[in-house]
Amino acid sequence: MSNITMSIDDEIIKKVRKIAIDKNTSLTAMNREFLKSTAEHDVVKRGLSIKELDKSFAVHSRDMGKRGWTRQTFMNDRIFIDTNVFIYAYDKHEPEKQKRAQFLLKEGIQNDNNEIIGVVL
Prior knowledge:
Layout: H1 10-22, H2 27-60, H3 71-75, E1 79-82, H4 83-90, H5 95-111, E2 114-117
Helix pairs in contact: 4-5
């Protein structure tokens, strides 16, 4: 088992030690239990997310017909634009990214070679 060092305000330590005594445990045991619970909760939450995704696949999957295209079909002289580029094109908070995004979108329209990617996996 690993040891960790934490910096915690003295008043908080005093209050939690009193709580630990009332619960017939130690501050270390309370921290250990909290961290264990947090890790277990994360595992459960991820599991539930995967189940929801599986449900979505089961409900929304469709036969989209035979694919009549190949990867090479889209790679010839095409520029793939992720939807994030649209966000940067309007984001004044990062002017350099905004300028570059606007340039890419305009260039793609001018050359008629943009392909917009809705989701990149």
